[in-house]
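Run WD repeat-containing protein 11 through structure prediction, thanks.
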Amino acid sequence: MIPYTVNIKLAARTLTGTLNLQNKTAVDWGWQGLIAQGCHSSILIIDPKTAQTIQVLERHKANVVKVKWSRENYYHNLSSPYCLRLASGDASGKIIVWDVVSGTAHCEIQEHSKPIGDLEWLWNQDASRDLLLAVHPPNYIVLWNGDTGTKLWKKSYAENILSFSFDPFDPSNMALLTSEGIVFITDFSYSKPPGSAGKKVYIASPHASPAHTKPAPATAPAPTGAKKALNKVKVLITNEKPTAEAVTLNDCLQLSYLPSKRNHMLLLYPREILILDLELSQTVGVVAIERSGVPFIQVIPCAQRDALYCLHENGCITLRVCRSTVATEEAADPEQSVQELVYDLRSQCDAIRVTKTVRPYRMVICPVNENKAALMVSDGRAMLWELRAHTGKAANPSSGLSPLYSPVSFCGAPLGPNQKKIQDLSLNSMIGQTLIAGETLPTSSHQQEVQLKFLLTGLLSGLPLPPFAIRMCPPLTTKNINHYQPLLAVGTSNGSVLVYNLTSGLLHKELSVHSCEVRGIEWVSLTSFLSFATSAPNNMGLVRNELQHVDLPTGRCFAFRGERGNDEPPIEMIKVSHLKQYLVVVFRDKPLELWDIRTGTLLREMAKNFPTVTALEWSPSHNLKSLKKKQMAAREAMARQTVSDAEQSSVESSVISLLQDAESKSETSQAISAREHFVFTDTDGQVYHITVEGNTVKDGARIPPDGSMGSIACIAWKGDTLVLGDVDGNLNFWDLKARLSRGIPTHRGWVKKIRFAPGKGNQKLLVMYTDGAEVWDTKEVQMVSSMRIGRNVNYRILDIDWCTSDKVVLASDDGCIRVLEMAMKSASYRMDEQDLTDPVWCPYLLLPRAALTLKAFLLLQPWSGTFTMDVTQVDYSEKDEIKGLIQEQLNSLSNDMKSVLQDPELSLLQRCLLVSRLFGDESDLHFWTVASHYIQSFAQARQLTVSAAEGQAQSEGVQPSPQSHLDICHDVLCETSYFQKFQLDRVHLQEVKRSSYEHTKKCADQLLLLGQTDRAVQLLLETSADNPSYYCDSLKACLVTTITSSGPSQSTIKLVATNMIANGKLAEGVQLLCLIDKAADACRYLQTYGEWNRAAWLAKVRLNPAESSDVLKRWAEHLCSPQVNHKSKAILVLLSLGCFYKVGEMLHSMRHFDRAALFIEACLKYGVMEANDSSNKLIEAAFLDYARLLRTLGLREGAALWASRAGSAGEQLMEELFQGEGGIPEAILGEEVVELGLESKE
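Sure, done. The structure for WD repeat-containing protein 11 is below.
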């Protein structure tokens, strides 16, 4: 058993329940690794790894409809730290940008009062990361500065905007899904609103196409699956508005660009997903559901692999992976080999039971690793699924799916022979890439076939539907402090009782106690309670009463009143005496019953003429102490007689203490019956006083009614103060010692409940009304705080209680239970004050400096020669408190992750990639993925040329494996050869799918640019004679076939091309230049006219490496220019060209010191950069600056290590570091020499 430490300070918190329908779309999983989820007007922050709610944000007045985490695609340092920033929009049109750790709002934005349609942080430029784009219904998009709340621009459109999607490859492209179709915007920029109204495209609903309505002839054979799907979607996209019959309603549920390949978009319909190629505006793939299948709700495309996560209406999540287009040997029919993009179902998770109130709302997937999904259910549950890869053959090989293989590398580098790895680190480490035509199938020697499975790794459940009855367990005292747990019992409408531990906010137990709605709960000890429920009345007005006694540790419950309870008037209330000896049960039209709780016996059932009780309360005074004194005296006398006089003095004290021990243990089991009293009022307001002792019941004094009070509704008694509340909202305070009474009208209507706060001498009183609650101080007789529905909250209060002497707990009709300060202001809490059961890995929760220190600590392993996960073993000067927090973060890493991070086989590049994944640092991840790929491939190429020059036979191991190209999601950064194959594959698919002259023309143009002249000529000759461009196309075909490389024809064509370009026919001119192999000139023209992306594409597919590299370098320069300011992209382009020295310089000049130093270090290790006189200056400067950065973080040892490699300036820094400590420790210098020695050998 873990020793239970008592946390007397409970954090303010909110326990949330079912979601509102408007919360359906309000969920987001950020790069920071946390999920935000709207629940009514609050926002939950969930940690998916441990399935805990770690923060609840409260400030919205209306239901939250959208939440979005900010992106992490910028370089992190002290001035732009790791921080948790979230934007949320509600149904009244308000947007709040939050600092989630402190629970405060950065800024609030209000434009219109309609629900926010969509929200997105702009991530595509380096200028500012505070820009937030929002859809304000019906038809505005507004760009805001999310830090200051200023409006940058606003633009309206002709139709209602439902949502938008940004092109992940080109920030100036976005698509708006409107009520009628799609609007494509190609000139989006953060500096000014889009100029044009965009290109409007109408979608004919897939079911309206004639293929569906045509009756099938009875005898015709059924078409095969692929053909069927093909018939289904001939042309779905038209520029004219379709006729009314064709499209009644745009039932498109969602539109998204595919992040895995450029210029592709998906449209989601309930029964199919269409994949469009935007260059052709043509469907190139369909995922359709069979007639008996379950319709889609939502789909999320992945970036790392061409795969789709789909959510179905039964809550089932399926993963579909794009099928390889490599023609397999079995495919006899060559036509069938590449008909369209096919997404094969690879894995699915279990469905949920869907009812009227329980249905799946949304799913989100982890953006960093894309291998975890969370499903949000309308009843407040969050189901956390993880995708796992198992090596092994398929169970049923007849399914005809080609096998999936796992990649042979880990973190972007080939696996070492005995290197530890995490198989399920991310989607791209679980399954290899989708192969495309022209690629060789991998040799199966290294590769393992894998199967994918979903595993439920976490489940968060909310409270059930209101109404609730709540009761806090007895308060903390000096006697129970060692084993006290702050438990809150919540009775629900379905008869179960939930017990929450308020320290952690987690469900402690759920007990199914009753068969109908729980009306009230009273605790009879720290671990047991009584609860009562009443069924619906029959026609006589009689009900079935259930009164159950529940023991928490064992879960045992029994009917307290035995066989009684059928067909009697309903129980109104139960009241337990202060010493937990007696219980009063009050009925509606029946005299009360008095029970002995300890024995479970009925002491007295009152006579028929007993007055009707309207309110009742036990008195806190009793005679237990005097009884105990008598008993002690008697026992001591006995003890003294048994001990002889000689030993008396020494033994006396110990005996007495033993007796006291026994006494306190047997306090409840002893049959001491103390005398207790209770008071109650009848319908006339007369106060009765009754004494109970053992099994005798005496009637005491009666006090006549107070004329100023109406019918008394409740009584509370503590110390010498008695308070009565009536149905008209009057409170009457009696001071029993001074015999004074004082009435106060609150003018708030019926006083539903009054409760005194726990704690000696604490005379605060909590009062509940129909429209809110108040806290009163009965000593001063004045109100301390108040809350009222409509004024400062928008929920109704259902039940109240105190949970500590200064915190109250309220149950409200929005399905939440809130623990609040006495001021009753609902506020978010600070995350660092939270008491979490499981530690959460989230560096964003640390102070900015500590987060950067943690990152450096992980990157710079080993520390003085040893791999360690203990921050105290490092020379790190910082407050112990912060060290402790950093150590907590390290401890919360999984054992697998720790062992990989401490694995000496893990190379520097792999470590950088792994740490950027752990931190969810988008910009780091992209940089290191591209850098590690190209550093390794250039190093490999260099080795090959060296070994060839020395005339050695090439060894097998040096050959680059076919798997070693970058994923196509990096687009123009990929290797040229792979990029060309991909483009050819794509054009081949477009050709198969073309269905109009327009499409054919576009295909022919693409083929000409790709240099596939023969195929292009065939397409050009297909033009029919009645087409206006028949003559033109025929001539073009002749021109293409007859082009010779003779001087005159070349110069003529070049002249024509330049004239065309000068007169605004850029595309045509470029085509002509490509025909005469002047693609380099074509690229130059494209760049001059600002078509930078097109030029880069053309350079990759047509030019030789040297020319292509020139074009791309010019593009990189353009990206660095101040008006574009996209240096991060420029660096990636230069990496793909192998300009490592330039990248090092740029990183250093941009003050990305840690990235620059680690990058240069990796380049030196792999031998793609040499330390000579020209480069030493940069190397030393970079190392020195990194050393300084480490010094500011307090990592002195790390700073000394890098400074010792930074030449003369470094020596100076070393002296500063170890001033007054008797010189530099030998260990550092000694190690250093060894390391540098190794490097020079390489």
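The longest helix spans residues 922-949.
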